[in-house]
Amino acid sequence: MTRPMLHIDSDYFLTAFRELAAIGRDPSGRGYQRLAWSPAEREAHRWFRERAQQLGLIVSTDEAGNSFADFIPPHVKDRPALAFGSHLDSVPYGGTYDGGYGVVAALSAAKTLMDSGLPFARPFRVMAFTDEEGPRFGTGLLGSKAVTGALDMEHVRSAHDQAGTTLREAMANFGCDLEKLPNAAQHLSRYFGYVELHIEQGPRLERLGIPIATVTAITGIRQVSLHFEGQANHAGTTPKPERQNALRSAAETIMQFSAYVDGTDNLVTNPGRITAHPNATNVVPGSVRLDWDIRSPEPELLEQATAALISMAERAGASFGVTLTTDIFHDVPPCPLHEPWMEAIEGAASHLGLTSTRLVSWAGHDAGVMGMVMPAAMIFIPSRKGVSHAPEEYSSDDAMLDGVRVLAETAADLLTRVES
Ligand SMILES: [Zn+2]
User: Ligand 1 centre from 370 Cα, in Å?
Assistant: First the structure.
């Protein structure tokens, strides 16, 4: 790269980051409550659009509540746009770095790019996605799925939160019509690709002492429910060999499958939820539902692991006279990111004198949804102690500014390329 380094206005970034960080704090001081379709999330979007407008960007929203800010040089107005951004919602008691950092960084990069005078070969779009996290309505990645036409309408129509508010009502409160969600995908052909900057949410970069990672793939996530059906019976009088103990079958499965996973690379799993019935001390557990989260960036490993899990569960059940039924209730395929754009990120980092490494993302991201239908790339910066989805989530100002610089340089490269 021969052009001089771009100048980032660090005051602009830090001021904007602190403004956003004032929105949606938990009243008790424990992190953030910027949940999807909450007044706090909507306020964050309003803040974003106002800030973007001040920069001179063209601001809009879509049917999914996503916010956009466009820079469209007249001579390239008909070409597909390079998009970059992240999401503005948080998990309950979450941090503001997850998602919020990427959005503010994208605004800062936009400011730099607009001032750069570079000869752009295409427009750019700053994106702030809605409902990326998903815990309120069991949706997740809703904004990006709407943009790419990947939404399961049957699922969103039945979605409701724990208080009984339906997603339809929550959207209507902000003037959005759930039935119009599919319309959000009508502009899909206008995208050249998507780049997302995000905190790592794990400890690897900090431990390596490396400021930047290029993400190679977003993990696939498969959630499998195992339903063991035995026979509830008296905990004292039932002869030991005759106990059809569903919970013991589940426990054996946890031990065996966890040992299998411990011996495997590129695969993580979690026996995250167990429901036993009747859940009484003096009753042999008659039925158990055990839900697993299985993740891998390799589709074959997801298949192999699912098959291994089911056969272990069947055997563990059979040895106690317990039958098994299974259900894959959530299945997101892995998304490999765009190799030429990984190289663009690495080139940007080295142009800035920053070392970088390559990592898999073990968390889901909007980039994994966008990347299914267009070139996509992702940049990570270190998270202190690897903590995320918690009030202690933190990345230093210097670490964040390094990320902003890499994003701006990467975008400058991709915006000025005549071909992809
Ligand atoms: Zn995030």
Answer: 14
